[in-house]
Amino acid sequence: MPHLPSLEKDTTIIVLGASGDLAKKKTFPSMMRLFLRNCLPKDLQIFGYARSKMTQEEFHERLSPFLPGTSEEKEGFLKICKYIVGSYDEDAAFQGLTKEIEAHETKNGGEDRNRLFYMALPPNVFTKVSAHLKKNCYSTNGTNRIVVEKPFGKDLDSCKEMIAAMKEIWTEQETFRIDHYLGKEMIKNIINFRFSNPTISESMSNKTVDNVQITFKEPFGTEGRGGYFDEFGIIRDIEQNHLCQVFCLMAMEEPKHFTAEAIRDAKVNVLKQTKTISTDDVLIGQYSAANGKPGYKDDDTVPKDSVTPTFAALVLHVDNERWKGVPFILKAGKALDEGKVDVRVQYKSPTSEHFKDDDRNELVIRIQPKEAIYLKSNVKIPGQNNGTVPVELDLTYSNRFTNDYIPEAYESLIYDCLRGDHANFVRDDELFASWSIFTPVLHAIDAGKVPVKPYAYGSHGPAELEEFIAKYGYKRMSNYEWSKTNVGELEKRLHRA
Ligand code: NDP
Ligand code: BG6
């Protein structure tokens, strides 16, 4: 794919579905952060478009509580945000939108007319709206880009169908498919961390690694989103996309070049070497009421007999020289005991006869909250004691990068899209390769062939989880406690040892 131009001026952003949840909570606040950092194109105008009848003022009032910054800063940003009411199925409505866009472009001189369409819409209207945009709102005198949100289908066939329908309208080059996890700082960091450190890249293989876990935990349930969620379940919501992207970055070979296409080629290659998930390699669960919190099926929008998983642990096996024999365990759950996303590379046990009972090394990349990388390592207990204690070589970002700004995921991605950089967006063949791995097990789950284990709201997940991960070799550390390498804490621990 050729390098695309960076949109630095003469640009309009159009957010379709501007009355919705994503627009309010993510799209507009992220654009405002870019605005505050002077990263938006010069003289940009943003049009919010949706069916809901609202005045401009009402639209601004709706966005305002979610925007960052002071009230003056918000006022400055909202001046460039206009709201237009229109339907998703009439040419005339989209032609009305085009007139508004053109009026702004003409004010700007009208030389170049670049348009970025952001679809903050449910997937059932994607294709219809993109067809209308192409027919009625496409700029013939500038660059057009369209941003699409997940879900990209529900299985391999529906994904292929959706992508084919979109491709008849918009080219791959014009299309930016968002998986917002690719905008997270620590996920973007995986490539640098793996390939710029020979010690790390050398250690990433079945010679030294025993197993890898990629974990997503949320401390809240699907309250309010049950209707959407019940159609998809946790594997389609989190694992086939967000965690699978992390898996690709952890498992792929070094890209030939660090370009968008070469990175995405490397991801597709490793996906093609990954076996289809077997039903034996899956543990699924659904949360029930506990600790004063409702169960999944207590939500009125969820059918009372739903067997949709809200938790799933599943294992990917890569059939190549580097990773043969190393299970990648993906775990995701709603309504768990805490909120966090991390990658845990557990190395093999020490080989020395003398230290063979010591804890294993673990390299942890904490994606959120509180970005960090730490390596659990064994050291001699200081002083007269010759025993070993597990501690961490710790890079906590907030301690090390005290003055650095870490952009929010959507902020990074909107910026990349304006710059025309596809590297952190999902290519069509990545989707096909990933759906191929997940589709059979999803169909088995949909057909009720995999038992759904209950777990209590606020717990670690189903009781069977410990046994499940132990089956793939994971060993819990026996003697380790997290400390922020605080010397006092370390001393206290050492005195206990
Ligand atoms: P919403 O349900 O809030 O829908 C957005 C807007 O689309 C609504 O305000 C409504 O606008 C319009 N709309 C809703 N249902 C229909 C329908 N059946 N037919 C036509 N228009 C409809 O969705 P979200 O904002 O939550 O999500 C938008 C997209 O982003 C989805 O693809 C979602 O999967 C994805 N996403 C959302 C995240 C989130 O945090 N919310 C996170 C990650 C991805 P109006 O009626 O005014 O036109
Ligand atoms: C979305 C899922 O894609 O990601 C949600 O649909 C989930 O169910 C969200 O809550 C998590 O995103 P983040 O950035 O808060 O980890």
UniProtKB/TrEMBL annotation:
Domain Glucose-6-phosphate dehydrogenase NAD-binding: 14-189
One Pfam family, short name: G6PD_C
Record flagged with keyword Cell division: no
Glucose-6-phosphate dehydrogenase C-terminal domain sequence ranges: 192-475
Pathway note: Carbohydrate degradation; pentose phosphate pathway; D-ribulose 5-phosphate from D-glucose 6-phosphate (oxidative stage): step 1/3
Keywords: Carbohydrate metabolism, Glucose metabolism, NADP, Oxidoreductase
Keyword check for Hydrolase: no
Molecular function via GO: glucose-6-phosphate dehydrogenase activity; NADP binding
Catalytic activity: D-glucose 6-phosphate + NADP(+) = 6-phospho-D-glucono-1,5-lactone + NADPH + H(+)
GO cellular component: cytosol
Record-level GO BP terms: glucose metabolic process; pentose-phosphate shunt, oxidative branch
Signal sequence annotation: none
The family this protein is said to belong to: Belongs to the glucose-6-phosphate dehydrogenase family.
Function: Catalyzes the rate-limiting step of the oxidative pentose-phosphate pathway, which represents a route for the dissimilation of carbohydrates besides glycolysis.
Protein name as annotated: Glucose-6-phosphate 1-dehydrogenase
Organism: Malassezia vespertilionis
Annotated gene: ZWF1
